[in-house]
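Example 3.2
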Amino acid sequence: MAEYEFPANLKYSAEDEWARSEGDRITVGITDYAQSQLGDIVFVELPEVGRVVEKGEPFGVIESVKAVSDLYAPVAGEIVEVNADLTERPEQVNEDCYGDGWIVVIAVDDENGSSGLLDANGYRQHVERRTKES
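Structure, written as tokens:
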């Protein structure tokens, strides 16, 4: 598991999204593990700003040379910003998944917005279980 990065300051969903809390806003992207499994990202379908999403609901699509995958909201709220740079440079997800490769910002519905998400250690264990099963 040493080959994947799991920043301790982030929370993680079981669907391989990360969430960085910034007040009542959560920046969301896919994890290092996810981008590695997908391979070269060639397209990211972004949602409309203003769209309201429920936790666990698909909000977009990410496409690589290997697969097409849904993106799932790790929190409930309103999408207030999207990373429009990804339409021209989707490879930023591979190059810097925890930085310039972020996907959306969600204004959370309540102060418990990121409850139920995994910490870095919990997500690492989740990934380890999945890689042993495959």
